[in-house]
Every structure is written in structure tokens, then in C-alpha cells.
Design goal:
Layout lengths: L3 E2 L6 E8 L2 E6 L5 E2 L12 H10 L4 H8 L3 H14 L4 H4 L4 E9 L6 E9 L1
Antiparallel strand pairs: 1-2, 2-3, 3-4, 5-6
The structure holds zinc ion.
Zinc ion binds next to loops.
Length: 122
């Protein structure tokens, strides 16, 4: 028998009945309930990270919805959930305002790239 791991904490999970005809599992330490494979793609483990990456690339809600094949309302609710988890950077708590910018460059070959990030206090 294969061991099922919790996607949240990687501890051992046990069977916990069925939902929609599919086996459901429950983590023994954090009590998270999950399926191994979801029918709706929004419930997959990496959906939030895909949404974050696409937002960073400048994609809109509708384009993310089309690319990931999930509903626009799901994208919006996930965006709110992701935004609530963002912690305020420490520099903002001090009341200082910084201008931050970055650039990348390479020497001879593009594989030899390096990033330069700087912050200037206004
Ligand atoms: Zn767990």
C-alpha cells in the first residue's frame, strides 16, 4: 500500500470516505482533507502559484481565466486570498518611502547574467 502525503504539511494521510465518487483523504496531523486528483483545475496544488506568476507577467483576470481554464470569479477570489497573505515589508512600518528598481545585465554571454537591485530613500 502506497503512503499518501498531505499536500500542505507532507505528513501521512489516511482515507476519509468519498466525495463525488472519489476517494477523499485526511491528514493525520493538520486534519486537511483533500483528493489526489481534482476534476476542477482550480483546486490543484499549484493553481495559486500559477495565478501569482501570471499576474506578475501582467496578465488580466480574463486572460488568466482562459489560460488556466478556471472561472473568472475563482481567479478574483484567489487574487484576494493571495493578497491577504502578503506581509507588509518591514521598511514600510518605519514610515520611510523607498524607490526600488532593478536591472539585469550580462557579460559576453546572455547565460552570464546578473541582477542589480537598489533601493533609494526619498
Ligand atoms: Zn497536513
Amino acid at each position: 500500500m502506497e503512503k499518501i502525503q498531505c499536500p500542505k504539511c507532507r505528513n501521512r494521510a489516511i482515507k476519509n470516505g468519498f466525495q463525488s465518487g472519489k476517494q477523499r483523504y485526511k491528514c493525520t496531523s493538520c486534519n486537511k482533507k483533500f483528493h489526489l486528483k481534482y476534476t476542477y483545475k482550480a483546486y490543484n496544488e499549484h493553481t495559486n502559484s500559477f495565478i501569482t506568476s501570471l499576474l506578475k507577467e501582467g496578465c488580466g483576470t480574463r486572460s488568466i481565466s482562459r489560460v488556466l481554464r478556471i472561472s473568472k470569479k475563482t481567479v478574483l477570489s484567489r487574487m484576494l486570498k493571495i493578497a491577504k497573505e502578503i506581509k507588509i515589508p518591514y521598511v514600510n512600518r518605519l514610515g520611510c518611502k523607498f524607490e526600488v528598481d532593478e536591472m539585469w545585465t550580462f557579460i559576453k554571454r546572455k547565460e552570464n547574467f546578473t541582477w542589480i537591485t537598489y533601493a533609494i530613500e526619498r
